[in-house]
Design a protein that fits this description.
This is SDR family NAD(P)-dependent oxidoreductase. With 284 residues, the protein is an alpha/beta fold. The protein has one domain: Rossmann fold, CATH 3.40.50.720. The protein has helices at residues 21-30, 42-52, 68-82, 105-132, 153-173, 191-197, 200-206, 219-232, 244-248, 250-261, 266-273, and strands at residues 10-14, 34-39, 58-62, 87-90, 136-140, 179-185, 236-239. It has a seven-stranded parallel β-sheet, with helices on both faces. Strand 5, helix 5 and strand 6 (179-185) form a beta-alpha-beta unit. It is globular and about 55 Å long. The mean pLDDT is 94.
């Protein structure tokens, strides 16, 4: 398939000012894309856009992925401003850490509402515009969709749901010429991971993400993978590529992860060190 040229096309990003959204927006602008930047903090999104160029090529809007009307208003405004929407990147997301037994129900609701329902709302709001140009919908999921860490129930469930939602939507829109994909990076440095590393439970589970199965990869590797995936209109983007087998055969990999990744008393030790009611990270 020929490369999907981003020059002159409009890409809408939710969570645009976050740990991944910020460098991704820059990389897409470097490819010549026009950018509709959506964030809960509209002023921050507008400042981000101003740093990327005049409002003919980048503009920011306030939008809350927990509110369909908010997303519709922002996507309609972006389409009117740029004259088209070609690509949507649903990137808004949060994390949480606590065992099921003590997790605050509101923490569960918030993570699932933003990470999973937020993707559905983003796609729903943007779809009429994207269909018009036979474009591409992408959601930022995670390797956590396939490798499920304890104390991360809301996060892993939401990311697995994102993968399933994208896969179902891909089949629904295939005959319309619209591509749909999900991106599955492993751990990489963001404000979300800073929150995890500040929690004794997180460092107990993943050892600071410095080595082995849980080692973080450079942020630029994730950005490069996502941009390349958009240009290929990929149904699945895995970063790093070496984890592709784990993403495609999670049932086979799971026993190995259980034995090597969570040895001995790692899980009960993490539970003992967790904040009982849990917490949710800052929006990505």
């Amino acid at each position: 398939m020929p490369r999907y040229d981003l020059a002159g096309r409009t890409v809408l990003i939710t969570g645009s000012t976050g740990g991944l959204g910020t460098p991704l927006a820059r990389a897409l602008r470097d490819r010549g894309a026009h950018l509709a930047l959506l964030d809960l903090d509209g002023d921050l999104a507008r400042r981000q856009a101003a740093d990327l160029g005049p409002d003919t090529v980048a503009r920011g809007w306030a939008a809350d992925v927990r509110d369909l009307d908010s997303l519709r208003s922002a996507t309609d405004a972006a389409a009117a401003h740029f004259g088209r929407l070609d690509v949507v990147v649903a990137g808004a997301g949060v994390g949480s850490m606590a065992p099921l037994e003590t997790l605050d129900p509101e923490a569960w609701e918030r993570v699932v509402d933003i990470n999973l329902s937020g993707v559905w709302r983003t796609f729903r709001a943007a779809l009429p515009h994207v269909k018009r140009h036979r474009g591409y919908l992408l959601a930022i999921s995670s390797m956590a969709a396939f490798v499920h860490s304890p104390l991360n129930g809301p996060y892993v469930a939401s990311k697995a749901g994102v993968w399933a939602l994208c896969d179902a939507t891909r089949l629904e829109l295939r005959h319309e010429g619209v591509g749909v994909g999900s991106a599955h990076p492993t751990f990489f440095k963001t404000p979300m991971m800073d929150d995890v590393h500040a929690d004794p439970a997180g460092t107990t589970l993943w050892g600071g993400n410095e080595r082995g199965l849980w080692r973080m990869i450079p942020l630029d590797k994730v950005v490069d993978a996502v941009v390349t995936g958009i240009e290929r209109r990929s149904p699945m983007i895995v970063a790093p590529r070496r984890l592709g087998l784990a993403a495609r055969t999670p049932g086979l990999v799971r026993p190995l992860v259980d034995r090597i990744g969570f040895r001995g008393t790692t899980v009960p030790d993490a539970i003992a060190r967790a904040t009982p009611a849990g917490w949710t990270t800052r929006d990505r």
